[in-house]
């Protein structure tokens, strides 16, 4: 039996790939879209039988992140795994399949006054968000997928379905594979469904914003709020070459207390209060290359004033996590300089960049514990068929 | 001929100094159990390293001799996670207790694993910060132990667990390397290390996140006729979109015990008391606190006491915090269970526990973190009475079955350890457990690091990954049992 | 001593659920981080002993226990470690042959300290020695350390001695009489800290008490009781009971003495002729601060503008649970600032005879305590036990800091008499 027949026998929706479905230029042979966990399991078992390498695809918001796969025979499209399996409102938990768009999930939860506190850019699926470990400004208060996934169902490279965690928030039975898979970019297994801890939607929110002429003022404003009793849900700082240093603070809470709270923050940082999110709130900075940074709050001034700041548009959350974007046409040597400057004050990983740039720079930077990571990878995917080459250290 | 343990003892004495090695049988036996005394095994050797290098040297020496080892902090665990091996080495971190760095601008502190949980908070309190995980043993449990167990506490409802408050760990891996987890790109190995109950390595340095001391803390005690109306209040509070810092509930028997032990003065005749604590910015808390008070009364609270100051707040908490130990005053012996159910299943499950208790004649006192459905039934028995312990154990196990049946967990915070490994198959399939153990095989292929914990059956790491066909080789050899 | 049936003892041991809450307050666990040198570990050893394990490897760990009873305060399960360690110590004394040198020293200590006349006899030569310039020489030479660390510790700890005025047998109340109280003068307190007793008597009188100070009083038995010398302790107790039976209240200003007198009922429970009398005296024994606080202030408090650190003596805070009363008394003095010492529950290492028999551990604990005392920035250390004051002052001196020490009674005395800070510093 040839591979296509085997795949088709396992999954109802299998077809040859279109040329434009390539992952960073690596064109798969087949595209399969399982609609159930069982189908996904059978599909991966069939792929294993034929030694097919695979890449998972959700909303395609981050498919171009990381290096191209070293090989890709099968593209697994998760978008038919689209059920919100359960929303236990009284327990503040929800389970959704991998292909459910995050926006749809949050719309459904919002109807019950609840939310999944992951506010990444629109279009992402549940599976993609978990696989990328992606989160927006709310990460300051609520963390990232690793902090909010309480149960995860995956299909292993050999087709075995495995589950960890459960559907209760407080649970320490067994290893937490949810945290291991969060941010693993599809290299350990196919995420098919996730159970999340939810939070109540805040009755009211307010943004306090100010743009400063100097990095020092922005630094002071951020630290004033961070170390105050403001209890901010998000503190963001952004700048771009030639622009000022903008600080935005998000406060959430009961409507009765919010005006006083936001006034307090406004006077603390000399800012103005608005109900609506400022432009570009939570969006990645614009550019043809995107770098994910980790710079701790005490080094914010260095982030805003370092040699990279002459080229890069920057956003940063007081959680210590941020983004740097470089304009089209930035030469690879300059990108390398920017990376070196960022790595001297924290971490920097190139998420996407033009091919010539990607080829010329160290995309990942230092990867501590790489040997251990390889050993874990070898356990889950001994044949290196899951998104091969797309992850840190060439995993 | 010297045994491998003799050779290790000599090697460790050379590496760490003779004062850091305990080999005398009488002294060794004082390490035979942690906070769970139903499982005991005197270690073959105890070592007390003072640095990561010493830990790594001991681990390498163990690896060279093929001798298993177990790490232990303060020895307060409640699942036997630090139960020693008679044929192995117990690596005790109680001398690694320096707070290495306090970095307020970055809201971080770096501590050694033997540092006591509460001491972190004490050290940063003058700066207006604290370390949020507050297991009830926080005055003695070590941060290293918190990492192993992913400890929570009464306030984890709002603030989360140790995993959410540890940003990096220096770890001695089972091959004796010192590596840093939680920094740089790649897999979140830190995420899986925290809560792995010491089976993936030994942490030697922990970077913890510090949390701002809230502007306001307000606490109330509400007394209800019954657990049901208390449960209604909990649902109403959560349903109203309030996320309290803590919601704790105790039933009549637990109240009786606490009263006997510490005279906490809870309202007489209460079938259940609820402790609700809110914290955060003044205005926010003030508004929600009124709401909570109202919701408690609406649910049938016949008395609501609001703590006016820290002393009154402490008094409210005294009864709750003493409850475990206090049960010793109303029963010669007891088992503490730790199960989790979805919060909404609370009334039904408690009724079933009542029925179990009535049918078996075994008394059960209930203390629980009601906000997150974490039950701590205290199963009472008289150890002098023949068969009583077995009956208590049976009821205790049946309660776990109830939890699993309702989509919950067999442990919310005590861990699986050695105590609950046999219950794991009730919650997870063989494939689930096999998959988890793939992580262990990646970290510890020889299985010397805290063996026999968490999983009922070890996975042979040389195996080709995949679902086993036929019995596990160890089962076939009669060396292990699959429950 | 209460005779325990094996079943009693099993029950007492069984009360320990091994939760570990005692560990952080145990001085030796704080020092060494070893299970055998923690209350939980020692109870485990006692349980092993019940099962027939050899005593020899355990003795060191029982000896190393300071008997500070911080664990009793910390224990949520109500384990009576105080009773357990006392019986265990008695067992050790009965069954464990100590090496000759240890035996000689222990005998010397127990034949000296509980006897005021003998203590008085060494006062003279000690005073001479202290004035001679010899101490510096002796300390530099380390000769005593070589002969015996215990002797060296005694030499280091001996307080600078001034004249010891004799107290009258009766001090009359000022103003209207509110009570008649007996006062225990204590052996070490009486001979080495006579100023404390004088201050105690004055404060009691100024607060309206007739103070009776029987001249023929002896040792209360605390040292013996806390070292497992049960019979000796009982004999001291009987004599002390006879001395104080006639007064309404016995006021004790040394924490160790107070706690042992409050235990008299247990000490003589098995002696039918004495049990009731012992219980009666125990019931009317009060610590100085406890009593004065209970009595309520009547005499005027004058300002004492000074910053003090209050140290909880273990036998006051843990054994007698007296923590708030002395703080209240000090807080009632105008212009006096009271600073709290970090880790107040951890013993200073004095612990009765501990700094004599376990000088090394005692010195380490003394250093820790001295560090926390220094961190308060206080100029005066206030403690209610002579041993603690000696111990901490010695440790501070080792660290190059001289701090004035005073008993709560002396601070109150200075305030009541309007002496200001000069009297204390």
From TrEMBL, chain A:
Keyword Flavoprotein in record: yes
SUPFAM superfamilies, sorted: FAD-binding/transporter-associated domain-like, FAD-linked oxidases, C-terminal domain
Keyword Flavoprotein among UniProt keywords: yes
Any Pfam family the entry gives: FAD_binding_4
InterPro entries: FAD-bd_PCMH (IPR016166), FAD-bd_PCMH-like_sf (IPR036318), FAD-bd_PCMH_sub2 (IPR016169), FAD-linked_Oxase-like_C (IPR016164), Oxid_FAD_bind_N (IPR006094)
UniProt KW keywords: FAD, Flavoprotein
Superkingdom assignment: Bacteria
Domain FAD-binding PCMH-type: 23-201
Molecular function terms, GO-annotated: catalytic activity; FAD binding
Name the record gives this protein: FAD-binding protein
Species assigned in the record: Actinomadura rayongensis
Automatic annotation (TrEMBL), chain B:
Cofactor: FAD
Gene Ontology molecular function: any one: FAD binding
Keywords, sorted A to Z: FAD, Flavoprotein, Oxidoreductase
Organism superkingdom: Bacteria
Ranges where the FAD-binding PCMH-type domain occurs: 39-213
Pfam families per UniProt: FAD-oxidase_C, FAD_binding_4
Region forming the signal peptide: none
Protein name as catalogued: FAD-binding protein
Organism: Actinomadura rayongensis
TrEMBL record, chain C:
Alphabetical UniProt keywords: 4Fe-4S, Electron transport, Iron, Iron-sulfur, Metal-binding, Repeat, Transport
Highest taxon of source: Bacteria
A GO molecular function held by the record: 4 iron, 4 sulfur cluster binding
A Pfam family of this chain: CCG
Cofactor(s) the record lists: [4Fe-4S] cluster
PROSITE patterns for this protein: 4FE4S_FER_1, 4FE4S_FER_2
Record's protein name: Glycolate oxidase iron-sulfur subunit
Organism: Actinomadura rayongensis
Organism phylogeny: Bacteria, Bacillati, Actinomycetota, Actinomycetes, Streptosporangiales
């Amino acid at each position: 039996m040839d591979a296509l027949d085997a795949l088709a026998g396992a999954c109802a929706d299998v077809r040859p790939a279109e040329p434009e479905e390539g992952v960073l230029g690596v064109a798969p042979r087949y595209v399969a879209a399982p609609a159930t966990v069982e189908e996904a399991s059978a599909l991966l078992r069939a792929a294993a039988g034929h030694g097919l390498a695979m890449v998972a695809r959700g909303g395609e918001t981050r498919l171009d992140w990381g290096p191209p796969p070293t090989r890709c025979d099968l593209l697994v499209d998760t978008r038919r795994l689209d059920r919100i399996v359960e929303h236990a409102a009284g327990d503040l938990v929800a389970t959704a399949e991998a292909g459910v768009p995050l926006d749809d999930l949050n719309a459904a939860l919002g109807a019950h006054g609840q939310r999944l506190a992951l506010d990444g850019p629109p279009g992402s699926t549940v599976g993609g968000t978990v696989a990328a470990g992606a989160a927006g400004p709310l990460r300051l208060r609520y963390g990232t997928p690793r902090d909010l996934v309480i149960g995860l169902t995956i299909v292993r490279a050999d087709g075995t379905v495995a589950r960890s965690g459960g559907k209760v928030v407080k649970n320490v039975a067994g290893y937490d594979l949810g945290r291991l898979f969060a941010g693993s970019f599809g290299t350990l297994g196919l995420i098919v469904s996730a159970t999340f801890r939810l939070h109540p939607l805040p009755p009211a929110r307010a943004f306090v914003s100010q743009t400063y002429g100097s990095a020092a003022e922005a630094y002071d404003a951020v630290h004033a709020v961070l170390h105050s009793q403001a209890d901010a849900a998000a503190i963001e700082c952004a700048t771009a070459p030639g622009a000022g240093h903008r600080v935005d603070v998000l406060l959430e809470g009961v409507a009765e207390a919010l005006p006083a709270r936001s006034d307090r923050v406004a006077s603390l940082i000399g800012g103005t209060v608005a109900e609506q999110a400022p432009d570009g709130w939570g969006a990645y900075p614009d550019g043809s290359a995107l770098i994910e940074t980790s710079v701790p709050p005490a080094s914010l001034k260095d982030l805003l004033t370092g040699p990279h700041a002459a080229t890069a548009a920057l956003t940063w959350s007081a959680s210590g996590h941020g983004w740097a974007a470089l304009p089209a046409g930035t030469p690879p040597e300059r990108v390398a300089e920017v990376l070196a400057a960022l790595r001297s004050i924290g971490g920097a990983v190139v998420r996407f960049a033009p091919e010539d740039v990607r080829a010329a720079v160290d995309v990942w930077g230092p990867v501590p514990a790489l040997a251990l990571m390889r050993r874990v990878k070898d356990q889950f995917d001994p044949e290196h068929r899951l998104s091969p080459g797309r992850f840190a250290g060439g995993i | 001929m010297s045994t491998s343990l003799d050779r290790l003892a000599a090697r460790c004495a050379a590496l760490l100094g003779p004062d850091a090695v305990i080999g005398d049988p009488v002294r060794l036996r004082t390490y035979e159990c942690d906070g769970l005394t139903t499982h005991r095994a005197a270690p073959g050797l105890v070592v007390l390293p003072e640095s990561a290098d010493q830990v790594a040297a001991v681990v390498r020496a163990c690896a060279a001799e093929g001798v298993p080892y177990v790490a232990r902090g303060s020895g307060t665990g409640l699942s036997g996670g630090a139960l020693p091996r008679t044929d192995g080495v117990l690596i005790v971190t109680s001398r690694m207790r320096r707070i290495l760095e306090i970095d307020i601008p970055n809201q971080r502190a770096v501590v050694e694993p033997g540092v006591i949980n509460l001491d972190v908070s004490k050290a940063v309190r003058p700066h207006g910060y604290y370390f949020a995980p507050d297991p009830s043993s926080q005055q003695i449990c070590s941060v290293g132990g918190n990492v192993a167990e992913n400890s929570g506490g009464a306030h984890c409802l709002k603030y989360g667990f140790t995993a959410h408050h540890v940003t990096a760990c220096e770890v001695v891996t089972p091959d004796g390397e010192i590596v840093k987890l939680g920094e740089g790109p790649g897999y979140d190995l830190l995420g899986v290390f925290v809560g792995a109950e010491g089976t993936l390595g030994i942490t030697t340095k922990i970077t913890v996140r510090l949390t701002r001391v809230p502007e306001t803390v307000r606490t109330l005690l509400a007394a209800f006729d019954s657990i049901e109306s208390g449960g209604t209040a909990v649902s109403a509070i959560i349903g109203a979109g309030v996320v309290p810092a803590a919601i704790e509930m105790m039933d009549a028997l637990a109240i009786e015990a606490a009263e006997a032990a510490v005279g906490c003065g809870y309202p007489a005749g209460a079938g259940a008391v609820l402790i609700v604590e809110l914290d955060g910015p003044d205005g926010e808390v003030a508004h929600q606190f009124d709401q909570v008070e109202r919701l408690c009364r609406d649910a049938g609270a016949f008395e609501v006491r609001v703590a006016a100051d820290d002393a009154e707040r402490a008094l409210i908490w005294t009864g709750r915090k003493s409850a475990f130990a206090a049960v010793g005053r109303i029963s010669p012996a007891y088992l503490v269970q730790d199960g989790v159910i979805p919060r909404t299943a609370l009334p039904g499950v408690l009724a079933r526990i009542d029925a179990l208790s009535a049918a078996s004649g075994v008394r059960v006192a209930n203390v629980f973190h009601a906000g997150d459905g974490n039950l701590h039934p205290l199963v009472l028995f008289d150890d002098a009475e023949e068969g009583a312990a077995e009956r208590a154990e049976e009821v205790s196990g049946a309660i776990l079955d109830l939890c699993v049946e309702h989509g919950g967990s067999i442990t919310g915070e005590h861990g699986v350890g050695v105590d609950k490994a046999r219950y794991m198959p009730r919650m997870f399939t063989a494939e689930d457990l096999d998959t988890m153990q793939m992580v262990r095989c990646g970290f510890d292929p020889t299985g010397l690091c805290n063996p026999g914990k968490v999983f009922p059956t070890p996975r042979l790491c040389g195996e080709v990954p995949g679902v086993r066909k036929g019995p596990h080789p160890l089962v076939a050899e009669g060396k292990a049992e699959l429950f | 001593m209460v005779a325990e049936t094996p079943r009693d003892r099993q029950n007492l041991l069984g009360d320990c659920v091994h939760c570990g809450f005692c560990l952080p307050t145990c001085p030796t666990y704080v020092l060494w981080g070893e299970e055998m040198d923690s209350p939980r570990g020692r109870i485990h050893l006692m349980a092993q002993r019940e099962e027939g394990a050899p005593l020899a490897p355990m003795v060191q760990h029982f000896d190393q226990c300071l008997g500070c009873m911080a664990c009793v305060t910390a224990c949520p399960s109500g384990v009576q470690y105080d009773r357990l360690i006392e019986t265990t110590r008695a067992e050790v004394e009965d069954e464990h042959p100590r090496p000759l040198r240890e035996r000689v020293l222990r005998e010397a200590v127990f034949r000296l300290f509980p006897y005021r006349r003998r203590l008085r006899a060494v006062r003279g030569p000690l005073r001479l020695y202290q004035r001679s310039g010899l101490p510096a020489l002796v300390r530099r030479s380390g000769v005593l350390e070589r002969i015996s660390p215990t002797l060296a510790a005694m030499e280091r700890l001996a307080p600078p001695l001034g004249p010891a005025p004799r107290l009258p047998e009766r001090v009359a109340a000022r103003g209207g009489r509110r009570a008649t109280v007996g006062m225990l003068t204590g052996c070490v307190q009486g001979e080495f800290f006579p100023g404390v007793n004088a201050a105690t008597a004055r404060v009691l009188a100024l607060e309206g008490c007739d103070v009776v100070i029987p001249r023929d009083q002896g040792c209360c038995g605390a040292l013996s009781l806390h070292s497992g010398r049960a019979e000796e302790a009982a004999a001291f107790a009987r004599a002390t009971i006879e001395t104080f039976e006639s007064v309404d209240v016995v006021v004790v200003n040394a924490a160790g003495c107070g706690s042992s007198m409050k235990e008299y009922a247990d000490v003589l429970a098995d002696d039918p002729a004495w049990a009731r009398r012992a219980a009666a005296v125990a019931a009317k024994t009060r610590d100085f601060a406890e009593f004065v606080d209970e009595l309520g202030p009547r005499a005027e408090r004058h300002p004492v503008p000074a910053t003090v650190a209050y140290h909880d003596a273990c036998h006051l805070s843990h054994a007698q649970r007296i923590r708030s009363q002395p703080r209240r008394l000090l807080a009632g003095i105008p212009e006096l600032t009271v600073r709290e010492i970090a880790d107040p529950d951890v013993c200073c290492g004095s612990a009765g005879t501990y700094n004599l028999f376990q000088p090394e551990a005692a010195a380490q604990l003394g250093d820790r305590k001295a560090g926390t005392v220094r961190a308060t920035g206080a100029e005066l250390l206030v403690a209610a036990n002579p041993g603690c004051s000696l111990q901490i002052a010695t440790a501070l001196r080792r660290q190059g800091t001289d701090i004035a020490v005073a008993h709560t009674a002396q601070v109150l005395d200075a305030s009541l008499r309007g002496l200001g800070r000069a009297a204390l510093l």
